[in-house]
Amino acid sequence: MDKITTTFLFSLFALLLTASLSKDLCHKDDANTLLKIKKSLNNPYTIISWDPKDDCCTWVSVECGDATVDHRVISLDISNDDVSAQIPPEVGDLLYLQTLIFRKLPNLTGEIQPTIAKLKYLRFLWLSWTNLTGPVPEFLSQLKDLEYINLSFNDLSGSIPGSLSLLPKLGILELSRNKLTGDHSLSLSILWVPRRQVPEASESSRGRTENLVHHMKAWMDTCASRTKIRVEGFNTSSDRLVLLRALKDLFETCGEVKNIEIRVDPVSKLIRSCLVILLGEGAKEKALLLNGSQVGGRKLTLSAVERTDGLTTSGRAAKFVADFQKNRSEIISVTGYDPTLPQEDLESVLWKHFAACGEITEITYRVSSVLVHLYGLGSLQRAVQLNGTDLGGGFTLTVPYPKREKAEAEHAIPDDITKTLY
Fold first, then answer.
1. Each residue's pLDDT tens digit, 261-320
2. 239 and 177, same structural domain?
3. Which segment of the chain is annotated as a signal peptide (predicted)?
4. 375/373 Cα distance (integer angstroms)
């Protein structure tokens, strides 16, 4: 092979390699869908930087999967904006989506988009702090991979579909601050793994808690992999879009810019705070080297937002679940048991009967009664059904409705009941 031919072939190989490496990862169908979503949302400032000339996997608020899913879009997070629109039906065309978040969008209206039912890989659904109306949709029970549902702080009404309790992987269901009616215990926040069989005392109960901790740890691991940089020193009267573009240009050398949260004071209309969220190895160190950079003629002060509790994600998840369950447990007063039983034996009796009702988060002993703290979907209703249970030896379990629950059972539950609880 002569020198000219060799040089030509080498140049051709280099050209092909360069073209291959520069090829966008983003799937063209996902890019087109995202641009339709942007248009439907009236081009909000948080995603105004989406440019069809760029790889959509690099767009803020978007995350793509790896080669195993052909780099399809797996996460869409649009938060903290004054979007005036409804959830675009095109979200249902992001067929590989695992995480969908529309959060703190007070002017997002309408019902929860039915096309979400097409997202068969969806694991995390977070639609909160919006003005969404209508019912909690029955179609969510079709999404068998769902692990986390947060529909809190909306204007949803009606009852809660019982079919949600059958979702095999559901770990967290958060429904507080809506106008839900019906079963009181269902209209509060729920953290509960569905019962596939009647639990046998504490072992099965502990298993459900371990599942919940696992779900929370997975979510916290995702959050912990991202670097949060607090930005100060900018002109607070800046145009948000101008500031967003300037910060994106500044930080894109540090890693993947996942989001830029710019919050505006609703009264003064001045920018109140700014947070840049980055993904990538060494992103924090690279970002902090930009401290003192000029944007709009102002010198920026940058600092990393760090956790100060000293806990690992495993420890933090376990603490979150324990605190959440304890703080939102139903407290059941129990009498009718043999008062001569040693405390250890009495506790065994209580576990035997109440573990099937929900998560027992605490047992408190009084002089003439025991308080069983229960957490979970319909736990109160199942517990009161134990009233009159024969314990043997002439003793009969007495489990009355708590006074406030009895009043609510005898009278219609007001539509705004959840507005008083959180």
1. 888 887 888 998 999 999 888 999 999 999 999 998 999 999 999 877 788 888 888 888
2. no
3. 1-22
4. 7
Triad 71, 77, 82: Cα angle to 5°: 145
Distance CA 291, CA 302 (A): 5
Given a cut of 60, whether residue 8 has pLDDT beyond it is no
Residue 184 sits in a domain whose CATH number is: 3.80.10.10
Asked whether residue 17 is assigned to any structural domain, the reply reads: no
- 76 within 8 A of 99, measured Cβ to Cβ: yes
* Rounded Cα–Cα distance for residues 218 and 398 (Å): 41
In order of 189, 246, 358, 409, the CA distances from 165 in angstroms are 13, 46, 13, 22
Alpha-carbon separation of residue 412 from 25, 179, 183, 188, 403 (angstroms): 55, 13, 11, 16, 15
User: In total, how many domains does the chain have?
Assistant: 3
CA distance 422 to 417: 11
DSSP letter for each residue of 248-270:
HHHHTTTSEEEEEEEEE-TTT--
> Within this chain, do residues 266 and 368 fall inside the same structural domain, yes or no?
no
Neighbours of 318 (CB within 10 A): 18
Return left, alpha or beta for 154; rule: phi > 0 is left, psi -120 to 50 is alpha, else beta: beta
Report CA-CA distances (Å) from 405 to 173, 184, 322, 400, 410: 22, 8, 24, 10, 9
Q: Both 187 and 259 in a single domain?
A: no
Take residue 3 and report the two structure tokens written for it: 């020198």
Q: Do 307 and 340 belong together in one domain?
A: no
pLDDT digits (tens, 9 = 90+) for 74-102: 999 998 888 899 999 999 999 999 999 99
Is 280 inside any structural domain? yes
Is residue 417 included in any domain, yes or no?
Answer: no
Residues 169 and 78 in one domain: yes
Q: Please tell me whether the overall predicted TM-score, pTM, comes out greater than 0.70 for this model.
A: no
Instruction: Tell me the residue range of the domain where 267 lies.
Output: 204-328
The residue from 297, 328, 359 where one domain ends is 328
